[in-house]
Every structure is written in structure tokens, then in C-alpha cells.
Amino acid sequence: MVQITIIIIIGAIIISMAAAMFMYTQYQTNFITANSGESVTVGPVEYTVVFDGTNQGNNETTPENTFVKIKITAKNISIEKTRISGGQFYLVDDKQQKVQPTYGKFTPEDLLDEWLEPNKPVVRTTQFDVPFDELKQYNVMIRPSKQQSSVDTALICIINC
Fold first, then answer.
1. Domains of the chain
2. CB-CB neighbours of 152 under 10 Å
3. Which of 58-67, 72-81, 110-119 has the lowest mean pLDDT?
4. CA angle, 48 as apex, 40 and 24 as ends, to 5°?
5. CA-based end-to-end distance of the chain
């Protein structure tokens, strides 16, 4: 009787470990790497990101350092509307420090919050306040929104790849 109980307990432990390992692999982040100008798909959205220069802001918003501007082309490849926002994008420098975008009314193309219709691409820009160095490598990280419920994360090299 004791032997059967021990076998049942060991079997339950093995089954729970297998279930935990399965769940871990299902929800582990899938990193996608690309270079500037290449398309990447994160969740239901296909993105193309390119470096669009640097600037010192405008009359309303000035940076502490330098604004690094990126141009984002986003296309919803699903059959339902989906949302993108500037909060999904981060600039990652060569020291792996993440910087969130700075919001301002720099151009009519600035990305704040946007609903994407299926198969209709939009072009938007966003800017990051960083101590810019032309010799360093900069990457843009794209994470899916909660509504998109994806495990994909893209890392796109935009400068000095």
C-alpha cells in the first residue's frame, strides 16, 4: 500500500513538472531581430522602422539631450482592428539602457495612440531624448500591446548595425 502511494506521488510530481515546462515554453518571449528598413511582425502588426534624424525639439518641447526620431510604418495583418501606441517602442543604446519616447506635437505624424484597420498601413514618427553619439549603436525595441496578447518582441537596429 505504501509503495502504491509513493508511486502515485512521484507520478504526480513528474506530471506537474511536465505541465509547468509546457506552460513555460508557451509563454516565453520570442525575440525577433532585424535591421533598419526590414519588416518585422509583432503580434498582428507588421512594422518597418527607420532612423529619421535628430533634432532639438520645438518651442513647446525641448530635450535634455538630443531627440532621436524614428519613422514607423505599421500594417495590421489580422482581420480585426488593433491598437498601437508610442508606449510599445523603446530606444535601446549600446549599454542596453531602455528609453521611452517623448510625446509632443512635433509633426502631424506623431504617434500617441492609433487604431489600425486591417490591411491599411499608417506611417507615424516618435522621438527619444538621449545623449546621442553618432558612433554608438542604437536599437528600437517593439513590444505588443496587452490587447494583442503576443509573446513576440522585436529588436531593430537603426544606427551603426
1. 31-159 (2.60.40.1240)
2. 17
3. 58-67
4. 30
5. 65
